[in-house]
Specification:
The protein is of the alpha+beta class. It has four helices and seven strands; from the N terminus they run H-E-E-H-E-E-E-E-E-H-H. Strands 1, 2, 3, 4, 5, 6 and 7 form a seven-stranded antiparallel β-sheet that branches. The relative contact order is 0.12.
Length: about 300
């Protein structure tokens, strides 16, 4: 119960850092550049970084045209900008980017001709195109930000899932090791039985042939042959005993490996449960960002 409560707290803390998606609002506004007050439009861009957004806005203004943006503080001006999505003719664009706590406000004045600006008095088509242009820019910035956040959380999720997979593989390896060692123990026990039977036979033969050796004449050919035969039996006896000892050592090692693997499995299973909880938590966090991203894309 305590571990479940702890997991819930972890999830709540993780969610606490996730900001809900906020609307992108395009409004009629006015822009003051120096002493001039010009009609224009403003758009809100939630959560994004000021410096990065300003650079991207300047890049956007300069795209498709040879003109360069002149920037002073937060104010940007470009003359003869080509913005075909708004108007087929070059225009002057004046803008100001302001940082308002957790969102940016971009105010833009589109000058189609001398003292002719896009505002609520413009044609509905021009007004709608300018609104869409600003909204698309703001939406792209917001999407890029939240996509980076979602990708970062997905990377964390895949890392935790990889940890879980490693634990599962390790448990499988431990279980296979136990079964393999049990199989080896059975083989070695079988070998011990066979070798013990062989040892009994060879030991009995040694006793019998040593008795016969005592009855043979010293220095005779029969005695020499018998002694050579007995040496061969002794070598065979030693080899059998070495084989038995080797099997016993292998059995001891296998039992030690089984004990070690058996003792590690419960700790592995406990860790798997913990990591599975982390996976569930991180899946929920990632899904929150994925949902947020999907909603922003639907704007």
């Amino acid at each position: 119960m305590k571990s479940i409560s702890t997991l819930i707290l972890f999830i709540l803390f993780s969610f606490a850092g996730i900001k809900a998606q906020r609307p992108i609002i395009v409004s009629d506004d006015s822009l003051k550049i120096g002493k001039s007050q010009m009609p224009g439009l403003s758009v809100t861009i939630p959560e994004v970084e000021y410096e990065k957004t300003l650079k991207l806005w300047i890049k956007e203004l300069q795209s498709g045209t040879k003109s360069k943006v002149v920037t002073e503080n937060s104010e940007s001006t470009i003359f003869g900008a080509e913005k075909k999505s708004i108007s087929p003719n070059p225009m002057n664009v004046y803008s100001k980017l302001m940082n308002k706590d957790s969102l940016l406000v971009l105010i833009v004045s589109f000058e189609l001709k001398k003292d002719q600006y896009i505002d609520r008095s413009s044609t509905p088509a021009e007004h709608a195109k300018a609104q869409k242009y600003l909204k698309d820019f703001a939406k792209d910035q917001y999407i890029a930000l939240v996509k980076d956040q979602a990708d970062a959380e997905d990377k964390k999720l895949r890392s935790i899932q990889k940890d879980l997979s490693s634990l599962e593989k390790e448990k499988s390896r431990l279980q296979k090791s136990i079964e393999s060692n049990k199989t080896d123990i059975a083989k070695e026990k079988e070998n011990i039985v066979i070798q013990n039977n062989e040892l009994t036979s060879v030991s009995a033969a040694l006793i019998e042939h040593n008795k016969l050796l005592s009855t043979l004449d010293a220095g005779s050919t029969e005695q020499k042959e018998k002694m050579d035969y007995i040496k061969d039996l002794e070598k065979k006896q030693k080899k059998i005993r070495n084989s038995i000892e080797s099997s016993e050592n292998k059995i001891n090692k296998c039992n030690n490996d089984i004990d070690k693997a058996t003792s590690e499995i419960p700790a592995n299973e406990t860790m798997q449960q913990k990591v599975m909880g982390q996976v569930a938590e991180q899946e929920a966090v990632y899904q929150k960002y994925a949902d947020k991203l999907a909603k922003i894309k639907s704007y």
